[in-house]
Amino acid sequence: MNSLPLALALLQLSFINGCFGARKLFALYQPPPMALTYHNGALLEGDLHVSILWYGKFSAAQKSIVVDFLLSLNPHEEPDPKRDPSISQWWKTVNSYVKKTGKKDIRVKLVDQIADESCSIGKTLKRSQISDLGRQADPGPGGLALVLTAEDVNVEGFCMSCGFHGSEARDRRVFVWVGNSATQCPGQCAWPFHQPVYGPQSPPVGAPNGDVGIDGMVLNVASLLAGAVTNPFGNGYFQGSAGAPLEAASACAGVYGKGAYPGYAGELLVDSATGASYNAQGANGRKYLLPALVDPNTSQCSTLV
């Protein structure tokens, strides 16, 4: 199940741009409700064991950006105003889908990290090989394998889908793949940290962790993780065709803050020290930019800021 490519979303929404033109008028545009239909399938629930496969070379600093994001998903034991808006608040919207089906809240547990720096099956991969890599990072029954490929690894269809999630029919294992787009299609997969390839051209915003490729990866990991939880086997929550579904995050492509419109990510918080933009805070003082999610209670794209 592919996430909606940002390039396609921007191209579609660019028609709205021609109608409204000015930024002020864009702010008046009210998108239609984005109700996601539940198709009575299983969702992920409870303790979600996640195992990461680092395929290719990643620095320790790059790995820590992704790991800190995952560690920040679970609710804090005690409220911490210094972390607001927090990643765990964003994750509550994902859990609201789980609750609506009577399931237990998801709590993410990072159980393993595997490094395949030598790229054991090559640096040019077919989509079908991603599930093979997922088996290398198998976290066990009911878990999720997160396959992350380095910037010099080319995956079939990379620029059309910056990542995707899927499952194995035999044992219903779930996996997510995301590639580092620092040198491959950053205008599609790392927007708004890079100038977009299509649609309105607004200046890029600063990457909150100073790494366009990795900060872009976190955006896509977040989007696909939300989709994997709420539509793991193709019969959960989605809108449209099961072959190309709009899911909790992909239905809100390009929206990160209030007032967002094509080519403009929305009103974001700005780090006074670095000038970088963000909308969520997490572990170890990290700041991140996360996608809007369709709120199942309002059928609207919900943002943290």
What does this structure look like?
The protein is of the alpha/beta class. It has one domain. The N terminus is likely disordered.
Features:
25% helix, 305 residues, 7 helices, alpha/beta, two-stranded antiparallel ribbon, 19% strand
In short:
The chain is α/β, with parallel strands linked by helices. Helices cover 25% and strands 19% of the residues. It has helices at 6-20, 23-26, 60-71, 87-100, 128-136, 186-189, 212-230, and strands at 37-38, 47-55, 107-116, 124-125, 144-149, 154-155, 163-167, 174-179, 237-238, 269-270, 277-278, 280-281, 287-288, 293-295, 300-302.
Q: Which term fits the overall shape?
A: globular
* Number of helical elements: 7
Mean pLDDT level: 88
Strand portion: 15-25%
Distance between the termini: 28 Å
Question: What are the segments in which pLDDT stays under 50 over at least 5 consecutive residues?
Answer: 3-29
User: What is the alpha-carbon Rg in Å?
Assistant: 18 Å
As a percent range, the share of helical residues equals 25-40%
Q: Give the total of beta strands.
A: 15
The biggest beta sheet is recorded as: 5 strands, mixed
